[in-house]
Amino acid sequence: MLLQILILLAGLALVVFGADYLVEGASGIARRFGLSEFVIGLTIVGMGTSAPEMVVSFIGAFHGNADISVGNVVGSNIFNTLLILGITGMLLPMAITPENRRRDVPMNIVVTSLLVLLGFKHTILGIGSDGLSRVDGAVLVALFAVYMWMSFRSSGSGQTDDSPAGEETKEIKPGWAVLMIVGGLAALIFGGNLFVDSATEIARELGVSDKFIAITILAGGTSMPELATCIAAAVKKKGQLALGNIIGSNIYNILLILGGSALIHPLSFAGISYVDMGVLLLSALVLWTSCLVGKKNMLDRLDGAFLVLIWAAYMAYLIMNL
């Protein structure tokens, strides 16, 4: 038990330090090349922190285990938006830019809705087949490529740093920034694996059921890089990077990870309930309402608290239905 606790603390330390270096490196790249921090969060950071989901889902697809591939992405996206973005919004209210409002937040809703329509047979349009075929996978991957092209194309030389006015930002050389990003991602992924493995062993030694471990430790484990990165971004007052990380991770998970998994092996949605997909779609819609209600164009602390409450209600539902 003592050894597992020490490993857990070591994993947590790696995650914290990795997130700090990743955020600093990504911000340095954004400033150096005139890209917005949102686009850096959407692409480099979003895809990097989704590496655990990609590994888990692709391995599940190779072994024909659709429950792992689909459940991992659905659970991760719910965790990302409701808990991680909720906590981050409570720590640092985040501005939602006109570009976010016109393209990125609606895109998150579109890809989530597309997943529901393709994955379930009994929807409004009835075009689904209770799973994703290889053709569906190809459509999702192609849509991902188009969205990435649009994101880079529209990223101009406007404001790249949303740090408070007057706060001095240190210049980071491009080569060093890349090393910080790569090293930070490596520490996040390795430290996250250590944390999840040791936490699982501790839970089992304490007599906690495997089902409870699956919906708590393992469900959140693959999203730990996003959690650590967003909290680090909030502490550094880089809200756009945090928002880009979550939206980027969600879109990446559905379009590239599930799309790629379906190309490897057609995926069944038999293990996913309408409640699971309903909560996933609700999380995307609640993010959109932040543009319209309360403090308009701002994910404020009240919005963040509401997201966390929805996550808590969903967790309670899962626990009651074990």
Q: Calculate Rg over CA atoms.
A: 19 Å
Order of helices and strands: HHHHEHEHHHHHEHEH
General shape: globular
Distance between the termini: 27 Å
Q: Provide the spatial order of strands within the biggest beta sheet.
A: 1-4
Mean pLDDT over the full residue set: 79
Low-confidence stretches: 157-168
State the helicity in percent bands. over 70%
- Strand portion, in percent? under 5%
Largest sheet: 2 strands, antiparallel
Class from helix and strand fractions: mainly alpha
The helix count comes to: 12
Number of strands: 4
Short description:
With 322 residues, the protein is mostly helical.
Could you explain the architecture of this structure?
- The chain has 322 residues and is mainly α.
- The chain is built from twelve helices and four strands.
- It has helices at residues 2-33, 37-49, 51-62, 66-91, 98-119, 134-154, 174-205, 210-221, 224-235, 239-264, 274-289, 301-320, and strands at 94-95, 131-132, 267-268, 298-299.
- The strands form two sheets. Strands 1-4 form a two-stranded antiparallel ribbon. Strands 2-3 form a two-stranded antiparallel ribbon.
- Helix 1 packs antiparallel against helix 7 (174-205), helix 1 packs across helix 9 (224-235) and helix 11 packs antiparallel against helix 12.
